[in-house]
Every structure is written in structure tokens, then in C-alpha cells.
Amino acid sequence: MEAPTRELLWGIGKSLPYYVHYALFLIATLIFLAGVYRWYRILKIARNDEDRLDNLGKRIWYTIRDGFLFVRLYFRESQMGLMHILILWGFIVLTIGTLILTVAADINSSFFRGTFYLIHEALMDLAGLALLLGLIIAVVNRYSTKPSRFSKAWPYAKDDGAVLLLLLTITVLGFAVEAIRIASGTPAYTAIIGEAIAKLLPYDLGLYRTLWSVHSLLALLFIALIPYTKLAHVIAAPLNILTRSERGAAARTVEDEEYLGAIEPGDLQWRDILSSLACMRCGRCQDMCPASNSGTTLSPMFLMQNLRKTLNENFDMLGRPKKEDVLLLDNVLDMEAVWACTTCRACMEMCPIYIEQMEIIGEMRRGIVESGEAPPDIRDFLTNVQKQKNPWGEAKYKRDAWAKDLDVPRTKDSEFEWLWWVGCGHAFDNRNKIVAKKLVRILNEIGVSYAILGREEGCCGNDVRRVGEEGLFQVLKEENVAAFEKYGVEKLFATSPHCYNTFRNEYENVEAKFILEIIYDAIKDGRLKLKHPVNRRVTFHDPCYLGRYNGMYELPREILKAIPGIELVEMERNRDRAFCCGGGGGNLVREYPGDDRPNNIRAREAGDTGADVLAVACPFCMIMLEDGVKMEKLDDRMAVMDVIELVYESAFGPEEEEQ
Ligand code: SF4
Ligand code: SF4
After folding, report:
1. pLDDT at position 256 over 90
2. Which domain holds residue 420?
3. Do you know which Pfam families this protein is assigned to (predicted)?
4. Nearest atom, ligand 1, residue 544 CA
5. I need a surface site. Which of 139, 302, 499, 656 has the fewest CB within 10 A?
């Protein structure tokens, strides 16, 4: 018995359409390569000062994991993860299968029979089905389910629907061509889907040839369009994952002293330009962005799309600049958008392909600050920090006034193990001073050996760096390091996640902990007894600089769960999806633009849980959310309290709490 196989180029043969097809294939490939070359040249205008290819083995692993198996996406949105797996793997198998067919038809067909042939036909059928299913899910999702992330479309998006339609047409025509061939009497063998469709289609050689030609032409069009449309993400997205940052929570640093921030596209990293091609306009970043949700002009998705559009418009088809002085400001983001960013990191956390929108904004801020064009409120903020070491411009000699009547040890006159870095929020803001005072009693109870710098404490520089004043950050850091050296500080704990973040990730030679870690250890080993029930329904707001920046999601919850009587309820958006309070990146001291402020939105989300306490773990969140709760008129039924205050109430009882 003859091994199963089939006639290659059935119904077409090596006729004129076949040779035309080859000529067009060559043209499509040349157009594709020209587009790739153009973007390669554009990429070369940008900076190359961060090693994006170190630890290559690890990089390849997470590219496979997140770029080809969509694990990151699958665990967040299983349906979307599945959709991408179906589309990508359907596409990959069909492409490889088509290459095999080409080799068999034009070079050597001896291998294309028997078991190999049967597997090939079965896999091609399954891959086609997978691709079709994936595309149907994509269409339903985009045009019927319409998740909120699609609610604000980039105004220049023209090819979303066209790309889906093109792929759908290619896939459907592929099945139709196969089915007509089978309908002619060619054995289907393992091509069971083609066989099923063949029952619905007539055998018509003319129709077959027409559909074969259209199918081939559209497939070639697809190849040619990749670098010029949204389809670029097919190639750019895996490369973007491969070159993701290994910096962790630390901000981008540029060691070249002549670097004055990002003013033109060439001031960005080449990887940012690659990211603009990789962005597939999924809207996940925008959906979680407090600035977008507040109705400001900032959208991290628009940022990436505008960057690509700006480059497209200002470089010719060979990748040569058409004109000098193309500015990022007003082309990719306007002034309001640049300063509306709260540096909450939600965009970067949500982006399935690790785009660094927030870092681009940070570099643009630096460019604006270095040019002396920062808005007046940002200039005031920086002047206040520079002169008084706090964002409000409170006299720096008042920094330790909160501890006046308390027995709080100072570094200058005591032995200590830990430096307590109090931070501006707890030192100067009246509401947060109450928290600091309660913490003193807790620290004394658990017997921590600590001291504060008092008036010698400065500003940690976290938010100064986030508004782009790198020079001032370096000055503050030098001053703080000098103070640490003066008093032999090797370990510190911070009461603000902002300070904790910069000490942990951007300072050297000092071990930084967050205060809740100290408290949690004391609860665990019995030094702090939580005796009194706190009969409250509590929802916890994750501070961005604790959660998304430093991955500390569970520890505050563990503390709350350890307090007897507390019923912990979650807001719909929690942990890595927590919605920012709006106080980061300099916005604590600014009049926030937009028609619905982030703290109001978050207060409503907390109110929706029915909680009577909105628990925070950050002085900035305390300020922002107390304001939001009042503005939303929720303050008669929901209090904003620091986790430290709830611990205090449980440790020392409500009577003492009231004193
Ligand atoms: S860091 Fe936050 S505020 Fe800034 S663009 Fe990203 S999501 Fe928006
Ligand atoms: S930047 Fe990332 S999350 Fe935002 S739209 Fe593009 S791909 Fe999606």
C-alpha cells in the first residue's frame, strides 16, 4: 500500500499564478525588510547606556514564558492569555507548515508522505482552528465585551479592525481552499476539519484557484505590512520582553553628566523606541492609570503611540531624520500630562510586555526641569525641599517638634541599632504626627533599639528624583549618607514607603526596612501582644511604593489579620492592581488637574466595600485619602487610619487610644 501523501500545488501546478506568487513573495519580503531596516536606523538615534542583554539565559527564559506562553497575561486574565496562545501558536505552526510545503513543492518532496504527512496535515488543521478561535475571541472581546480598557481609544488608531479582518480572512480562506481540494476527491486523511468543511462546499476548480490566489496575496500583504502597522508588535513585543529592565524598583540613572533629560526622541533609550513598536494598544496601562482615570490628558498608552507616530512622521522611509529639533513635549505628551503622572508604576506593572512608560515620563520631567521650564508648583516643591528639606516649606528646625514631649532617643546622644527615618510626612503633617507618636509607644513596648536624627534628618529624595531633579537628589543623598557615616548608621527603618523605596533601592551601604516589618516581627515573636479586639470592618489600600515598587502586599494584611476583631475586606482593585491615591511624583502638593481626582476615586472604591476603616500604610496616602473621603462625604461612616494606629488600639486598648 502506498504511503499517504497528496499532490503538492494541487490545482495550481507550476503555472503563471505560481510564478507570480513567487515574484510577489519576493516583493513582500523586500518591503518587510525595508521597514525593519528603517526602524533599525531610527532606533540607532537613541541612547544605548543600559545593558539590555546581560543575563541572556534568564532573559530568554522570561521571553519564552511571557512572550510565547503568555504566563504573565494568563495569570491575570486567563481568557486573554488563552486568546494570545491560540493566535500566536496557530500562526507559528501554520507558518512552519507552509514553509515545509514550499520546500516539498520546490526542492524535495520525498519526506512529505506517510506519518510525517499525516502529522503535518493534522497540525495544520488544528493550528488553523486555534488561530480562528483566537481571532473570534479577539473580535468578541474588542467589539462586544468591550472591557473598560478599550473605553478611551487613541484617536489615530485606524488599523485595529483591519488587522483582525485581514487575519480572519486569511484563516477562513485557508480552510476554504483546503476544503475544496478535499471536495475534489483528494483523501483528507488527518485533515478532519477540512474534511468537515468540504461537505459544505462544492468542488469548483475555478473558485479554488481564485481563493488560493486571494489567500496567498493576503498572506503576502500581511508580511509586507508588519513593520508599518500595529502588526509590528508580532516581532517587537518578544524583543521588548527580552530587553526588559533588570533595575527593579530603582529609577533609571544616566551616568553621563552631560545628559539633561529627554527633550528629543534621541534622548530616550533605543528600547523605548522599540517599545513604541511593541505597544499593541491593549489599554491595560491606561485603564489603571490614575491620571487617565481622572480625566487628565495623560494616558501611558497614548504616550507610546504618540512616540511611534512622531517618529513615523519625522523620519523618511530610509530612517533618516526629515528635520531637526523634534521635541517630545507636545508631540508625545503635553505639559499637563507630564506632571499628572503620580509615578504609581501601575502602567509598567500592567503592561504585558514590560514597557517603561513611567520611566519615559521621568526622563521627560528631567528634561523640563533641567531646561528651567517646570511648572511653578513643581518649582516651589523643589525649592522647599532644597531649602527646608520638606515639600511644604515648613521650617526645617521644626522637624522634630512632633517628638518634643516624648522620650524619643536621638542619634547624637544615644547608642542605637536602628535609625528611625521619620520622613517629612510624619514629621510635619499634623494627622501623621499622631501616627508617629503612637509608634513611639509601640517601639518602646517591643524594645527596639533605635534613634532619630531629629533636626539633622533631611529629605530622602525619593520624590525629588521622581519629578526629575536628579542633581538635587544626588545632593540630598550625599547629605544623608554623610549623616549616616557621622552616626555609624548601618540599618534603618522608614515610616514612609517613599523613603523606604529610595533607601532600599537607590542608596548603598544601608539596610532599609519598612516599619511594618519591624512590627510584624514583634507580633510574631510575642514582643507585641495584640490583646484588645478592634471590632471594625477594614479595607487596606496598598501604597504604590510598598506594593508595586517593593512587592510588599501581604505583610500589612498579615498584621491586620493578627488583630482580633478586624474583618478584612478587599477593594475590587487591590495588591498589584491597587488604584493610586494620587499623591506620588510631586502631586501631593499640587492642585491636581482633571475632573475626578485619584483620591476621590479611591475613596469611593473603599466606600463600596462597606468598610468603616480605610487602612493606609503611607503618610501621603493618609493625606490624600482623608481628603478624598471627606470630598466624597464618606467621613461620617469611614475613618482613614494607619495600620500602626490599628495595631496601637489592639495593643493598648481603646481607652488608652483615646488619651
Ligand atoms: S506611573 Fe501611574 S500615573 Fe504615571 S503614567 Fe503610569 S499609571 Fe499613569
Ligand atoms: S503600553 Fe503596554 S499596557 Fe499600555 S497599551 Fe501598550 S502594550 Fe498595552
Report:
1. no
2. 388-520
3. CCG (PF02754), Fer4_8 (PF13183), Nitrate_red_gam (PF02665)
4. 2
5. 656
